[in-house]
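Continuing from the previous page of notes. For each protein in this section, the sequence appears first, followed by its structure tokens. Read the first protein now.
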Amino acid sequence: MNLEMQQFKADFFKALAHPLRIRILELLAEGDKNVNEIQTLVGSEGSAVSQQLTILRAKNIVTGTKEGNKVIYTLKDPMIIELLAVARQIFNNHLVDTITILDKFKEDEEEETMVPKN
């Protein structure tokens, strides 16, 4: 069972491993949308958006419901919104760490330039 869970997680994160797919999920977190709406919002070609939606559907991350001549896409699990928020927080934490390192580096450089050399 543990191996199955690890495989599920690996496949799940692979399905998320594309910037356009992440952007699509962020948009769907705001509400259901059809392909044309997603296309317009991401500024990408329809074929690229459709291709990414196909991958997300295949992994049961989004679902599509036919309404007339349009397919309306929605997040399969609302916890995706939380996952994206956690990913943003992790990014922010890394950014804070990087800024701290850069500030320390800058302080060290300033100290070196202030110390007279013999």
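Done with the first. The second protein uses the same format. Note its length before scrolling.
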Amino acid sequence: MADWQPVALLRRIVASLCLIGSALLLAGCLLISGEQTTVSLQGSAANILTTFVSAEGSDEYRVPALPANTEAQAIVIVAVESGDVQIDLIQPDGSVSFVLASRPGAQVTRSGSIRSDAEGQIRYRITARGARNGEIQIFLLP
């Protein structure tokens, strides 16, 4: 009887480590179901619209939306039926320009400046926790 106890304990430890490892791997990704994203460019202005049914996790996006090294005014709108969504607009040097957090059942808006990188891309991070039926819109104006 004593022979199987160390094996069972070892199996539990290995299973726990696998579970922890899987959780850490998923912690850096955003799982979105029913996602639809459109990017509309008109001259030096851009509109990025994402709608989704559900979202969980975090991920960073790069969107070619502006001429290279351009300063723009960003207007960000986020709305979710339930759960939490946070949008971080990120400058080319990695600093966060500004953050907008959702309120369930309400539309929240914030504006601030953002600069595109050398390729004309803007960066933003979406972090979601139990988010359902949401919309994220980013307007970029010169």
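What the second structure shows: The helical segments are 4-26. The mean pLDDT is 85. We return to this in next week's lecture.
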